[in-house]
Amino acid sequence: MRQQTLLLALAIAHAVYGATSNALCNIGDTYVAGNWYCQEVKKISYTGINQSGSYKATTAMDENTGVCSRKDVSYSGPGAPLDGEVSIHLRGPLKLSQFAAYTMGGGSSASRKQRRHGHGHGHDHGQLHSRHAAKRAAGDLVTAVINGQTVTWAKGYDSTATPVAGQPAANVNTVEAGTQTSPAASGSTPATPSTSIGDGKWGRVAYYSVNSKDSAAGLAFLNNQGSSYASGTWSSTFGNSASYASEDGTTAAKSSTPFGGSLATSANEVFIMTDKVCNGDDCGFYRPNSVAHHGFNGSSKAFLFEFQMPDNPSGDSSGLPNAPAIWMLNANIPRVSQYGTDSATKTSCSCWDSGCGEFDIFEVLSAGDKRCKSTLHRQHNAQGGDSNYFKRPTDAPVKVAVVMTGGNFIIATLKDDVTFDETFESSTMQSMLNAYDNPNHQSVFAIVR
Ligand SMILES: *[C@@H]1O[C@H](CO)[C@@H](O)[C@H](O)[C@H]1NC(C)=O
Ligand SMILES: *[C@@H]1O[C@H](CO)[C@@H](O)[C@H](O)[C@H]1NC(C)=O
Q1: pLDDT, tens digit, for every residue of 118-155?
Q2: 1, 136, 155, 226: which has the fewest C-beta neighbours closer than 10 Å?
């Protein structure tokens, strides 16, 4: 009863802001294969992303010893370190109908056209002698402070994953109702900051549509299938580098190739960079002879997606079949090595393990599941994963926006009639994000440290 009263108060208080992650979890939750699932929502907002920290950037990769050298890079400011260049990653089964990238005040490069070049299928033998790219590490630790309580849980990928001993993972869901701050009850400032995206004009810097894929602009589709026969490189030490993706995403192409729009299974991944090739040291260190492009840069950026994640249990040789995903990485990760390991430390050769940034946007975590979760990975204590989830769009495409600005990262389901225009006033973008304004369909997850 006490809980219900509180929920009602929260529902009223958060009519503008959305309910807190905890409030929605108090309605009900399930624990499946190492992951909590509370309520299905249309929008998840991460707020208060404004902690300084540092990570270890790769400075060299020794092909003889397999050792990766590093240096400390410190970061600060809203959204950091994902305010720098990021790459957008897709795992099948997935159909991409449209994709657009925006920056505040951007748009000038959208006129650059991606040209169709020859395909590399005929000469691409890279996979024959490649080391199989490892899937992403299972059981990542996720720690967050939610309403003053430190919560740690393992982000498991299989049924053996369990909450970390000694850390009450169930806290996500069993927070005493009375410990929640209710702005309605206290009359103080809202417990959850506004997820306003500010003023200004958003300009499109990259656009892809499966219906006009040959004229996609401002971007390139890459994957991790590099070989000297197609593009990128391969070595027995570090495996395949990044490469241009073939039309179906399964192999490497010789040059930038229009994406066919479909990834058949979870064994297939591609990632999206800008069409700008790294020049000199303007990307910092990247794996020599790799395909290295600039990522999407800036502390205010936005991405629109139209995609479907069909249920396809067949023909999938990946470690986690039928588990599609859309996620974002610090662009240094795929430029160095998305899955390669440092032989000395047994951690990733890239800056991934040291917390240089991953934002899981729509991710299926167990085979065949119909729920997609999101998680923000950065440094210990400055990251978190919302326990609410999006419905996996198995049968029809869905439109989704990811807006990152002012230390807020918002993932929102859009109305079907939204078009991926060349420019958006911020007020238009804001109303798009508020399309589903029932507070029980919006979760706000505050990152606090
Ligand atoms: C990325 O944007 C920041 C400003 O947000 C700027 O300082 C930096 O130089 C940019 N990086 C590149 C490679 O353009
Ligand atoms: C980010 O944190 C810094 C330092 O604490 C503060 O000065 C700044 O106002 C914060 N910015 C935002 C958008 O919260």
Answers
A1: 332 222 222 222 222 233 433 343 444 333 333 444 33
A2: 1
> Ligand 2 in contact with 407 (CB < 6 A)?
yes
Written as six digits, the tokens of 33 are 């294969």
Q: Which residues contact 345 (CB under 8 A, 6 or more apart)?
A: none
Q: Which has the higher per-residue pLDDT, 227 or 180?
A: 227
Atom of ligand 2 nearest to the CA of 407: 13
The tokens for 279 are 């020049």
Q: Cα–Cα distances in Å, from 198 out to 194, 404, 428, 438? A: 10, 11, 11, 22
**Secondary structure letter of residue 125 according to DSSP:** -
| Distance from the Cα of residue 439 to its chain's centroid | 24
Domain boundaries, the chain: 2-446
Dig out the tokens for 5 from the structure. Answer: 């009263």
What is the radius of gyration, based on Cα positions, of the chain? 21
Instruction: Tell me the CA distances in angstroms from 289 to 83, 115, 176, 374, one per residue in order.
Output: 26, 22, 55, 33
Per-residue confidence (pLDDT) for residue 18, from 0 to 100: 62
Ligand in closest contact with the CA of 47:
2
Residue 44 neighbours by CB under 8 Å, 6+ apart: 374, 386, 388, 390, 410, 411, 442, 443, 444, 445
Interatomic CA distance for residues 44 and 273, integer angstroms: 24
